[in-house]
Structures are given as C-alpha cells and as structure tokens.
C-alpha cells in the first residue's frame, strides 16, 4: 500500500472485506427459486468465535464481522439480480436465507414496521445498520479518501477504488466526481498523460489508464534491452 494509505485499526477493519471472495461457496449455498419453491441450502447463524473455530463463515447475530455481512448482502443481491428477481422476490429470497437469531431479529424488525415500509431497500438498509455498522463504513470511507494507486496495477487500483467507494457514495455521486477522484489517485506518470483531457465517463477513463500503463510498460522494456 502506498505511503498515503491509511493505517491502523480502521484500515484493518475495512480491509478484512477482501477475504470475502473465498466464502461464497460455503456461505451462500444455492439461491431459492421463488417460482417453484425448491428447497435449498441456506447459511446458519454463527458468532465470530464459532466461525474461526469451524472455518464456516456465516452471517451471525452476535459479533459478526462486518466484512462477512457486507459480502453476504452483496453476493445475495448479485445472484438475484442475475436471475432477474423483482425487488419483492429479492426480499423474500433474502429472508429465506436468514437463520436462527438473524431470522428472529428480522421478524422483530418486520413486525415493528409499517407494511408499506418493508421492501428490498428497507431490508438492505436495516441489515447494513445492524450487521455492518457505522464504524466499518467510516473506516472504509477514510481509506477511500486516502486511496492512491501506488504500486498497484490499474486493474488492482480500479478494484480497490470500486470496493471502497461503495461506502463513500456521496464522494462519487456523479460520473464526473468519480472520474476526478480516480484520476487524482493515479500514479503521476499516468495522470499527466490523461489529464490533458478531463474524462467524464468512468469506464472510458479506466480504459485509457490501462492503455497508458501498457504504453509505459513497453517503453520501460525497450529501455531495459
């Protein structure tokens, strides 16, 4: 990580999210088919201490790591979106994946809310407030604000940028702001080549950055011959 990156407890808390990719197979199981009511495997509720003991990373009601809860929600929504679930189906599908204390917690929340309140966005916001927590979001936001490319490749920098920006949406509310922040974090040798024209489409900016990086790499290889 570059010298401008944040350090300490907050960074470690937020960086724990990166290990989430390895838990999908054991944690998610199969998504429910809401049209055919097929019975599926679902996660159980465990505490962090139990998770570390058994190696089975699941959403729990007591001391659950925010990285696990964040990844669970992100992966669940991604799968259901790919299956073209409606918001109502997403809500019912996610409910069916809750177990034990997590399920009891949601029942209590649902019973205390007005029926018209309870939708997919309400579920996500409430679950994030319960399991992800403000301290984790703040840690990710601080890390995002100090994020620079450093020794990363453009591909690695983009992945980290997108991961952290999810908890700093106000800072990248528009395509323009997103481009400005991404460009500011690029290494100087890439930034000066791209800054000649302020790009306002994020995907185009990333493509240009990748091209410039390849050009610089080729130049270095020729010089080293």
How would you describe what is shown here?
Helix 4 packs across helix 5 and helix 11 packs across helix 12. This protein is an all-alpha fold. The chain is elongated and about 70 Å long. The longest helix is centred in the last third of the chain and has 22 residues. It contains twelve helices and no strands. The protein has two domains: 127 residues, no CATH class; 76 residues, no CATH class.
Report the strand count: 0
Rg from C-alpha positions?
Answer: 21 Å
What's the helical proportion of residues?
Answer: 55-70%
Q: Write down the overall mean pLDDT.
A: 76
By DSSP (H or I, 4+ residues per run), the number of helices equals: 12
Shape: elongated
Short characterization:
This protein is mostly helical and 225 residues long. Helices cover 60% and strands 0% of the residues. The chain folds into two domains: 127 residues, no CATH class; 76 residues, no CATH class.
């Amino acid at each position: 990580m570059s010298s401008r990156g944040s350090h300490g407890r907050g960074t470690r808390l937020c960086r724990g999210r990166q290990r989430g990719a390895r838990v999908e197979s054991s944690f998610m199981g199969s998504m429910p088919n809401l049209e055919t009511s097929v019975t599926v495997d679902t996660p159980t509720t465990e505490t962090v201490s139990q998770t570390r003991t058994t190696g089975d990373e699941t959403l729990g009601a007591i001391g659950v790591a925010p990285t696990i809860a964040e990844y669970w929600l992100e992966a669940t929504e991604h799968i259901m979106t790919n299956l073209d679930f409606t918001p109502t189906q997403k809500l019912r599908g996610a409910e069916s994946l809750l177990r034990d204390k997590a399920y009891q917690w949601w029942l209590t929340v649902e019973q205390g809310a007005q029926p018209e309140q309870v939708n997919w966005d309400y579920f996500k916001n409430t679950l994030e407030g319960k399991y992800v927590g403000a301290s984790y979001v703040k840690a990710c936001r601080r890390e995002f604000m100090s994020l620079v490319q450093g020794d990363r490749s453009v591909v690695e920098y983009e992945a980290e940028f997108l991961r952290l920006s999810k908890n700093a949406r106000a800072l990248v509310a528009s395509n323009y702001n997103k481009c400005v922040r991404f460009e500011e974090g690029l290494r100087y040798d890439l930034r000066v080549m791209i800054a000649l024209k302020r790009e306002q489409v994020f995907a185009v900016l990333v493509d240009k950055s990748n091209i410039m990086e390849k050009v610089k790499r080729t130049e270095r290889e020729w010089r080293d011959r």
